[in-house]
Amino acid sequence: MFGAAKALRDAGVLGLNERNANYIMRLNERRFYPRVDDKVLTKKISLAAGMAVPELYGVIDHQGDVRKFPEIVENLESFVVKPAAGSGGDGILVVTGRSTRKRDSFRLASGLLISTDEILHHLSNIVGGQYSLSGNPDKALIEYCVRFDPVFAEVSYQGVPDVRVIVYRGYPVMSMVRLPTRASDGKANLHQGAVGTGVDMGHGKTLIGVLGNEVVDEHPDTGALIAGLQIPGWEQILESSARAHEVTELGYLGVDIVIDRDLGPLILEMNARPGLNIQIANNTGLRSRLKRIDEIYNPADDPATRARIAQREFAV
Length: 316
Hints:
Distance between the termini: 31 Å
CATH class of the largest domain: Alpha Beta
Number of strands: 13
Oligomer: single chain
Number of helices: 10
Strand content: 15-25%
Strand order of the largest sheet: 11-10-9-8-7-12-13
Structural class: alpha+beta
Largest sheet: 7 strands, antiparallel
CATH superfamily of the largest domain: ATP-grasp fold, B domain
Low-confidence stretches: 1-5
CATH architecture of the largest domain: 2-Layer Sandwich
Number of domains: 2
């Protein structure tokens, strides 16, 4: 057991305890956590900083506001409902259209129909805190439904893929693309069965894929090859991720970005405690990259400079 742990450490793999003690606790002040834990606040500060995010159609703050839902979506064919303080994709409804026969019914990304009353009940559960991190009362967001870039069409099942970038002291250090599968119910969540694929930081191309603890070459549902995809807007993705450091004032964070076919990269959310599976997807440990940033760190570097440095330092 101890030999295996030493081997992983020697290989530069960052462990959970080390991540928490040496990076999250040291660089992420608790008073800044709401900036990433509350998706409404994340959207507001991102917009204030001029960053691209999915359009917000409305917010349900209290149980009495649930009845406003039909008015908010009256002229919308597609939208997403999500808890402001949720995690792991729980509580999210992705509506892709309306029923042609029943105007008060909506079609989910899975193809199933859901009635207005069922959505109202779901909104009530969100506001009641069923999906919040703390279990406390929450808010529900109704926002733009991303139409993902066609580059991912053959390697995604129903849902929207996203790009996770780990940012350390303002420098992007590692990235992966999370690809929805049938097992993950169309959600880009590795713990629920999505595929994670590493990314060449220098060129924005996908590398190997990982499903659970297994390395995979093909998407399990479509059979399409995972490696070698060129991620659109890669430089913009890196620069936006780097800017998230100034917006959140967190020294160690994850930035999740979706790529809309019309609008380009959009920041979906941020995370003060990003997971470590990204190392498996990249077949590379984080520790050596974090150490390299400590060696070259320059507080005068702006986000664009930090993005270029990431491309130079961590190209595969």
